[in-house]
Amino acid sequence: MIPRVSGTPVLGNLGELRRDWLGLLTRVAAECGDVGSFRVGPRVGVVINHPALAGELLVRHAEHLEKGPLLTRLARLYMGDGLITCPQAGHAEARAHLAPAFTPRAIARALPGIQACVDAAVEALEPGSTIDVHAWLTRLAIAIVGRALVGEDLDAPALERAATDALRDINHRIRHPLAAPPWWPGRRRRQARATNRTLDALVDAVLARRRAEAASSRDDAVATLLAAPFDDRAIRDHLVTLVLAGFETAASHLAWTLALLATRPDVEADFLQEIRRLPAQPSVDDLDALPRTARILEESLRLYPPAHTLGRKTRSPLTLGPYALPAGTVALVSPWLLHRRADVFADPERFEPERFAAPLPRYATMPFGAGPRVCLGARFATLEARTVLVALARRVRLVPVTPGLPPAETLMTLRPVGFLARVEAAG
Ligand code: HEM
User: Fold this and answer.
1) Looking at the domain that runs over 91-303+373-425, which CATH code has it been given?
2) End-to-end alpha carbon distance in the chain
3) Does the pTM exceed 0.90?
4) Which residues of 336-347 are buried (b: 16+ CB within 10 A; e: fewer)?
5) By the 8 A CB rule, do 66 and 57 touch?
6) How far apart are CA 200 and CA 191, in angstroms?
């Protein structure tokens, strides 16, 4: 029997879910232990909060799972059957077609383009000005995705607005699970359609330009998609997915890293020391040879994993350790929760990158997920983060206007809210 936290008679834990999703997960773990559950009206969510059991679910039982209702019902409104949201049945094949765009070689080829975007954005920062760090990083991450995956400069403001609208809509629907469904006529449906029209138009324009090119010698993600046996709809869904998945998470990750670094001058000093000897345009090998920087980013992903909750639905009954999960169970693995287990991480709330110098139990951290649906862009995101941190540190210091960490907003991703910083020239 899976234990369940208390809730109100009819709505169960809906109020808590709306107010404070991470707080609800924390209470489930505190009161129920490794596996516990909560209820929203008639629906039950089972939270798997043990590294080995989470690994067993996502890796060993992967074939018996679909993505959770959130992704299949809500993110699909915008991402269609892209790689993140597509059913398990066609997933392996679709992933195999997309994978060539994410090999280490393909990413190494994209590095100079990423560096050019980052350098241009950093040079445009004016010492003495104040910026919203997350908003600035979002624009930069869009530019990077455009250059590296699509091979051109995307319409950043339109895309940023469409992506933010999509994420806000999804978030609203998460908070109001018993409200009108997405197909219900009204303002929300109109807004969702307008957002999708913007996304469609951006993709259509990219594809039209690309198809008009004579024998293309390009080898980016669009070229990979066009070479695969996908119809136009599938190409649209995969491209929107790559773009949305590729910037929102990366921007949040970097913003949290900068916020965390600002709280630990000693860690920041170690980082500055490590990057001192890097050449002007670091190669992939240079960026890979930065162990302290790597640990800073890992620790940031531990404390603030942008993908804070991964949802699955069981297609058939399965056994997880001592627990039986019937078919149709909604099972949730929360990196945010797993990464705070006090038996794995001493003083778990503390930002302590050097804890990653020692080996950790398997699946103790999984900011990029695990199993066949693990993040396809993990390597890309890692190199991008290192490039941005290095370029920023060389030219400027971002000094938070308000000391301490900014509050977190739990949309589809975990973002910092109102993180303002003053730009100072690097000393
Ligand atoms: C710090 C940055 C990132 C984080 C934390 C992150 C996290 C994740 C996670 C946790 C998943 C698995 C979701 C699940 O199991 O339900 C995922 C999937 C995915 N991510 Fe990322 N991601 C990041 C950056 C990127 C980038 C830059 C790209 C592309 C350019 C990308 C593309 C994808 C794709 C295509 C999938 C679906 C993989 C599949 O189902 O086969 N991600 N990401």
Assistant:
1) 1.10.630.10
2) 59
3) yes
4) bbbbbbeebbee
5) no
6) 14
**Lookup: tokens for 262:** 């600002």
Single-letter code of the amino acid located at 231? D
Tell how far the Cα of 351 is from the centroid of ligand 1, in angstroms: 23
**Beta strand 43-48 with 330-333: parallel, antiparallel or unpaired?**
parallel
Residue ranges around ligand 1 (CB below 6 Å): 83-84, 95, 149, 241-242, 245-246, 249-250, 253, 306-307, 310, 367-369, 373, 375-377, 380-381
**Nearest Cα to Cα of residue 307 among 346, 348, 337:** 337
Count of residues making up the chain:
427
Q: 411 pLDDT band (50/70/90 cuts)? A: confident
Q: Where are the domains of the chain?
A: 91-303+373-425
Q: What is the mean pLDDT of residues 88-99?
A: 96
The residue type of 16 is E
Helix (H, G, I), strand (E, B) or coil at 388: helix
Give residue 192 CA to ligand 1 midpoint distance, Å. 23
* Burial 390-423, CB ≥16 within 10 A → b, else e: bbbbeebbbebeeeebbebbbbbbbbbeebbbeb
